């Protein structure tokens, strides 16, 4: 549910109604004061936001964990369950196609792989899919999605691992399309109108319980280099402590998960994936790149 956020003291009604109001589809959110309340099961999106910041990627929208009490919200949102609320970016660019409005540009898997070729110039034609997005952005996305095992963007068909029968990609008969790469498309490829060359990472809960023996390396396919700052953080041996330091700032999430001890198994999983990614970089002689000054 999209809601309008209101700072305490904005008006006299704030104390009675809480700090959120349901937002109408048009107009209410153009000033950047809206958020999207998601399901309790999406709580890992908050962890994903902190991982994004710790690694210096800065591509995820701000996310916090909160309980809601506004009487204007449906009861299912005020039953005491902790939910993530994600900042609503008012200038996210969406395609006009109603069947593909979760993308800023339509991009197939084969086109994507072609764009990643190191000796091929990036397309400059305005009508070329995703032509404004440089290769470095795809490197950031691949690193982030691998650590969290977010499959929906780059591999919604589960082509990179053997999915269980209960997986949505199997139930929706998407996995069968893996036989024909020309049918595969990327989803949730989004940019903001104010920064069309920077990807925005959404729906980042990923799969914290995804088994290590089924890690999806297809997410890394075609990527030849990774951001130096992020790789240095992974190599530092301090990833878990940096995440704990960051997560402690969200008191509701911290306390609900049992503090450092409760969060540690999850952070250990991410750290193990980081070590696997570092081995992948070394074994394939992949490089790192420095961020250009802004």
From TrEMBL:
Lineage: superkingdom: Eukaryota
Compositionally biased tracts (Basic and acidic residues): 7-16
Start and end residues of each stretch annotated as Disordered: 1-24
Chief site of localization: membrane
Annotated compartments: Endomembrane system; Golgi apparatus
InterPro entries per the UniProt record, alphabetical: FAM198
The entry's keywords: Golgi apparatus, Membrane
Assigned GO CC terms: Golgi apparatus
Protein family membership: Belongs to the GASK family.
Protein name: Golgi associated kinase 1A
Organism field: Zonotrichia albicollis
Upper classification of the organism: Eukaryota, Metazoa, Chordata, Craniata, Vertebrata
């Amino acid at each position: 549910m999209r809601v309008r956020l209101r700072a305490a003291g904005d008006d006299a009604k704030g104390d009675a109604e809480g700090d959120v109001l349901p937002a109408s589809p048009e107009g209410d959110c153009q000033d950047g004061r809206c958020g999207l309340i998601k399901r309790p099961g999406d709580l890992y999106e908050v962890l994903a936001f902190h991982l994004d910041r710790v690694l210096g990627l800065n591509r995820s929208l701000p996310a916090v964990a909160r309980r809601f009490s506004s009487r204007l919200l449906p009861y299912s949102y005020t039953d005491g369950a902790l939910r993530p609320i994600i900042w609503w970016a008012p200038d996210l660019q969406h395609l006009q196609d109603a069947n593909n409005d979760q993308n800023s540009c339509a991009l197939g898997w084969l086109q994507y792989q072609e764009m990643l070729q190191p000796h091929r110039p990036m397309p400059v034609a305005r009508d070329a899919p995703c032509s404004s997005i440089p290769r470095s952005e795809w490197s950031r996305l691949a690193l982030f999605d691998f650590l969290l095992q977010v499959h929906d963007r780059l591999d919604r068909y589960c082509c990179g691992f053997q999915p269980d029968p209960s997986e949505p990609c199997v139930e929706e008969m998407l996995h069968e399309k893996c036989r024909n790469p020309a049918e595969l498309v990327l989803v949730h490829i989004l940019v903001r109108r104010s920064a069309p060359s920077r990807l925005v990472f959404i729906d980042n809960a990923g799969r914290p319980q995804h088994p290590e023996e089924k890690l999806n390396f297809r997410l890394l396919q075609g990527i030849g280099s990774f951001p130096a700052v992020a790789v240095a953080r992974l190599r530092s041996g301090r990833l878990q402590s940096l995440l704990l330091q960051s997560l402690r700032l969200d008191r509701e999430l911290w306390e609900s998960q049992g503090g450092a001890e409760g969060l540690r198994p999850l952070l250990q999983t991410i750290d193990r994936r980081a070590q696997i990614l570092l081995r992948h970089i070394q074994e394939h002689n992949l490089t790192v790149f420095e961020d250009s000054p802004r």
